[in-house]
Each structure stands twice: as structure tokens, then as C-alpha cells.
Amino acid sequence: MAGAGQVGAALALYWRAQPHSALRSQVRGAIIPGLLGVGEPLIYGVTLPRMKPFVTACLGGAAGGLFIGLIA
């Protein structure tokens, strides 16, 4: 679930970024590996340098894990 949280945070950053910005380029390059399960480009290149998206991605992953744990 942590990977899904990182992907969600990266997509939110992508939608909020200015068109043709460096942030959009970074997210575009890291989102495909993130969707395939390799989260390091998203973590170290996109969300961790900006602390707030990293924390919200961790909270989203925790909420998803709690939900899966409760219904499984």
C-alpha cells in the first residue's frame, strides 16, 4: 500500500505543477516505475525532497493498509 500512496502523491503533485515545469518532468519519468512497483524514483526524486507530499503518501499508505487489514 505504500507504493500506492507514493503514486497518488506523485499524481497530485503532477496535477498541481505548472505545465512544462521540472517537477512535471520528474514525475513523468518516475511514475511508470512506480506503477510497476519500483518506488525509489518516486520517493527519492519526487516526494522526499518535498516533505509534505512524502508524509501524506505515508499516511495514505497506512490508511490503505489499515483498510485492507480490516476487511481481509
TrEMBL record:
The keyword Glycosyltransferase does not apply. The chain crosses the membrane at residues 53-71. It is found in: Cell membrane. It comes from Shigella sonnei. InterPro entries: PTS_EIIC, PTS_Sugar-Specific_Components. Residues 1-61 form the Phosphotransferase system EIIC domain. It is an enzyme of class 2 (transferase). One of its GO terms (cellular component) is plasma membrane. It holds the Pfam family PTS_EIIC. This is PTS system N-acetylmuramic acid transporter subunit IIBC. It is a multi-pass membrane protein. GO terms for biological process: phosphoenolpyruvate-dependent sugar phosphotransferase system. Its EC number is 2.7.1.-, 2.7.1.191, 2.7.1.69. The gene is murP_1.
